[in-house]
Amino acid sequence: MKKGSNERQWPALPTTLKKVAVAPDDSGYDTVRANYFRIGTPALVIMAETKAQVAETIRFVAEARKVRGSQIPFSVRSGGHGITTASVNNGGVVLDVSRMNKITIVDKEKRLVRIQAGAVWGDVAKALDKYQMVISSGDFGDTGVGGLATAGGIGLLVRETGLTIDHVIGAELVTSNGECHWIDDKHKPNLFWAIRGGSSQVGVVTEFLFKADRLAAPNGEGGTSVTVQKIKYSVTDLSSFVLEWQKYTNASSRWLTSLLMITADKNSDFVVDATNVWAGPEGAKMTASFKKMLMLGHIEDQQQSTMKYAELVKAPHEPHTGQQPVFVKNVLVKNFTGTIINEIENMLKYDFTMGIELRAIGGKLNEVKTGATAWDFREATGFLALWGDKDHPQELKKIFKVTEEEGLGVYGAYSSELSEQENARAWPKEKTRTRLRKIMNESDPEQLFDQGRSLNI
Fold first, then answer.
1. Which of 82, 49, 204, 99 is closest to 148 using CA atoms?
2. Residue 2: pLDDT above 50?
3. What average pLDDT score do residues 8-34 get?
4. Residue of 87, 141, 242, 326 with fewest CB within 10 Å of its CB?
5. How far apart are alpha carbons 313 and 135 in whole angstroms?
6. CA distance 358 to 175
7. What is the pLDDT of residue 71?
8. Between 217 and 286, residue with greater pLDDT
9. SS3 of 286, please?
10. How confident is the model at residue 4 (pLDDT cuts 50, 70, 90)?
11. What is the pTM for the complete model shown?
């Protein structure tokens, strides 16, 4: 630690970390203290460049907790776009792996790709496009690989290709004792199961081995092109609109993934912005699908364009300044019931509600056996998120309660609430929760990885 930072309460920083450490009195501190949703005041940020430095950081934090006699916060950051905001903290250590961002094609015929955890998904899409490959990821190109690929990954191709975690076939993991492990179905399979949907409770993943996809193309060879239809509707009868949209998307080709953003307008009607992504070949089936979407309600504006997936999720590489001050709640559902739709209308009445997001997410996601990974919602076909003002968390939790109780549980990476109850809702099946907690306690008995989504909070 630097002079004047209460140095006696911290152990000596290892030599291997001094060149990548940033303290509050360093000139670059303001550029590494925040994530996309929050500005933190960590005592130290380690900008790790190697897995050896990741391991050394973990051992340093464990020693620091012993020396200080307190549970100093320990956050891990890859892209810094986790809605939990837990990738930064106040007074603790942030391990940032964004410099570990290499993307390596291992076998282009088998579509095997090694990606370090600090890469962002927009850069991954760009690199894979050269080889006519895609991996479904988040909606925003600056989202980090490490956080998404351990939490779930409900992306814009989810109905066609499934979750991001469904494409992880191996990983390098550093556990709480600073040891590095290769994990897959044959090597430490319990840890491998846990990192696919269990977030970072069992350690820090430094690199993943993925099996990428190829999207369907007219010549049968595969590609990376998608067609995106954007529609702005003005809606009076929201219940009928959502039920009709749900009915159609559930019955449609899984080449279609659809997302709605709903807001209330000043005339007590609703504005619905739809993004429909077609991940198959252009043709009669796509034309019919998009035509159906145009019939759902009164249209204020519409656009349609074909592009590479890499263009759709291009990474802007924005500096982090806590620029998105929101509080988000969510729920996964088998179907959007009448009760849920009535609650959407109710939630949109409040000034502190920014909007309601709905997604159709069935398809390939539903084909993975329940329990195959630590992600607990294989029966889900819908996803709902309430976006609100960060200064009104209690009010937002209150108005979301009925909707929450109607659903299956919570997608942990997309919720701002970090309570014990919310963490339990992220793994609602007792079998999953028990297994994950057992693995976590074996791999991290001192609960070093207790920031963010943890069953031990």
1. 82
2. no
3. 94
4. 326
5. 11
6. 36
7. 83
8. 286
9. helix
10. very low
11. 0.95
43 within 8 A of 5, measured Cβ to Cβ: yes
Pull the structure tokens for residue 410.
């919570």
Q: Is the dihedral of CA 402, 372, 211, 148 positive or negative?
A: positive
* 3-state SS string for 43-97: CEEEECCCHHHHHHHHHHHHHHHHHHCCCCCEEEECCCCCCCCCCCCECCEEEEC
H or E element that contains 289:
helix 284-294
Cα dihedral across residues 16, 113, 118, 433: positive or negative: negative
Q: Mention every residue, 6+ apart, whose C-beta is less than 8 A from residue 29.
A: 22, 23, 45
User: In 71-143, where does DSSP find H-type helix?
Assistant: 121-129
Among residues 444, 454, 450, the alpha carbon closest in space to that of 202 is found at 444
Q: How far is CA 394 from CA 385, 386, 397, in A?
A: 16, 13, 5
Task: Let me know: does 125 contact 145? Beta carbons within 8 Å.
Answer: no
Instruction: Please choose, from the candidates 37, 83, 51, the residue with its C-alpha nearest in 3D space to the C-alpha of residue 386.
Output: 83
**pLDDT for 261 beyond 80:** yes
With tokens 């990983």, the residue in question is: 171
Q: Are 165 and 197 in contact (CB under 8 A)?
A: yes
Pairwise CA distance, residues 194 & 177, whole Å? 17
